[in-house]
Amino acid sequence: MATDPRIALRQFTAALERHLEAVATRRGPEDPSVEAAYEKLLDAFLDYEESLSENFEEYLPFVQDDYDE
């Protein structure tokens, strides 16, 4: 779902802010709002990276960690 890179960047930045807010207001070690914010942040990151790739053939210098619960 590649979009305009500027839109994807704004969405990624907003997801970072929501994640920080969720972590800062955590209501316990397994707060579902933190997990939800993490998932949205991951999705926004991947959308931004895909947008950069499709529009500019550019990639971010980060590797997604394999996350298993």
What secondary-structure arrangement, pairings included, does this model have?
Blueprint: H1 5-24, H2 32-56
Helix amount, in percent?
55-70%
Helical region count? 2
Structural class: mainly alpha
**How large is the radius of gyration?**
13 Å
H-E string? HH
Oligomer: single chain
Mean pLDDT: 91
Beta-strand percent range? under 5%
Number of strands: 0
Which of globular, elongated, flat, extended, rod-shaped describes the shape? Answer: elongated
* Straight-line N-to-C gap: 26 Å
Low-confidence stretches: none
Describe the structure in your own words:
With 69 residues, the protein is mainly alpha-helical. Helix content is 65%, strand content 0%. The chain is elongated, with a radius of gyration of 13 Å. The relative contact order is 0.21.
Concise account of the structure shown:
It is built from two helices and no strands.
Keywords:
0% strand, mainly alpha, 69 residues
